[in-house]
Amino acid sequence: MAIDHGEYSMSIPPRRSSARTELSESWRTLLGAFLGVSGGITALPYYTQGVFVPPLASEFGWSREQMSLIVLAGGIVLALLSPVVGWVIDRVGVRVPLAFSFGAMAVGYLVLSMIGSTFAYFFLLQLTLFAAGSFSGPVAFTRVVNQRFDAMRGLALGIALAGAGAMAVLAPPFIAYVIDIAGWRTGYRTVAATMAVCATMGLVLLWPSGGVQGAKAVGGRAKAQTAEPETNLALFLQLLATLLLLALGVGGFTFHMVPLLTDAGVSLTRAAQVQSLIGLSVLAGRVGSGLLMDRFFAPRVSALVMSLAALGIVGLAVLGPSAAPACALLIGFALGAEGDVIGYLTARYFGLRHYGRLYGVLYGVFALGLGISPVLISRMQAAYGSYDVALWVSCGTMVLGALSMLTLPRFKTGERAAPASGSQTSGKVEQ
């Protein structure tokens, strides 16, 4: 049954049978993407960055402010390069860029293990790592997953991107243990080795997959099956603005949760425990939101998740630290959900022919918003002497983003994923 909603409508295969078929035929792709994401630039290097701050500061006298500049600058580099990464992947596929990117990062971390006391050299080397590693981010892996999955696309994206959440939980204590027993230089070598293992296993699993083509192969397949949706500039700009609002609203308090709580008299240990809930709920948000998007209209799922996160921040503003655990869980779930939403909506609205460059722009703007948000909150806290104004502004921003999500149109009938067997499924239902 097909139900028309004007220009945009939703056409998807029957859920159960085709989802089972996709999983049985493409589980290697899904596992490879999970491992690749876990070793990529937005996971292993990002979540272990802070572990190296104390030993480097102790040995070389570098300040924490200096070290934090690396994270901000790296985020800007990724935001600027993501559209370029997408364009390259659209042209040549993911195999060669991924192999180059992971190899360059592994070598870079070996070089970091031999670094001296000159901070400028360390800073430039870190920026080079971010640039070289930009191909190992979610742009490549979400493209592969989108090509191979359709009926269970949301869940598949959630599982693949959960590699970052898993690394956030496992990598920091492991690398910290290595540093404690063998020093920070061995710690950097261990990061390089871990990255090499994740990348090798991931690429081996992805290599035989048909879901690693460039635009020419995807375009040819699309013509053989059905026309790709045309890129709607107004829709793209609305999605861009919506994601920026959500990033600005939800991103800042992942950084400021601990200082907000300690300012309110909560012990550092307890504040850190609350902070850790964000990481765990990111994992839940990845998989949970993906599962929901396969069953309900994705923008509504996103709007609901962001509304709940806004409600959690209201609770923090009104009730204080007693609401912090619930707020942390809702913020983490929202961050995990939005990571899935970007890739899911890009593929559903615009197809796969130009997926890489479109996703790259959307992801880059979202990442930039996540980087700007802590700075804006810091300014508001300094101006008003507390986080109260920042909490209400963040809440309002998320509400605006959720409302914009609710106005997004239904998906166009068109783009279909190609299962490994090349078989097609039929059936049209409203989502």
Keywords:
2 domains, mainly alpha, 431 residues, disordered N terminus, Growth Hormone, Chain: A, single chain
Provide a descriptive summary of the structure in words:
This protein has two domains: 15-225, Growth Hormone, Chain: A; 233-406, Up-down Bundle (Growth Hormone, Chain: A). With 431 residues, it is mainly alpha-helical. The protein is globular and about 55 Å long. Helix 11 runs antiparallel to helix 14. The longest helix is centred in the middle third of the chain and has 31 residues, at 233-263. The chain contains 16 helices and no strands.
**CATH architectural designation of the largest domain:** Up-down Bundle
Uncertain regions: pLDDT < 50 for 5+ in a row? Answer: 1-17, 214-227, 413-431
User: Based on DSSP secondary structure assignment, what is the total number of beta strands?
Assistant: 0
Strand content: under 5%
| Number of spatially distinct domains | 2
The name CATH uses for the topology of the largest domain is Growth Hormone, Chain: A
Rounded to an integer in angstroms, the radius of gyration calculated over CA atoms is 21 Å
For the sheet with most strands, the description reads: none
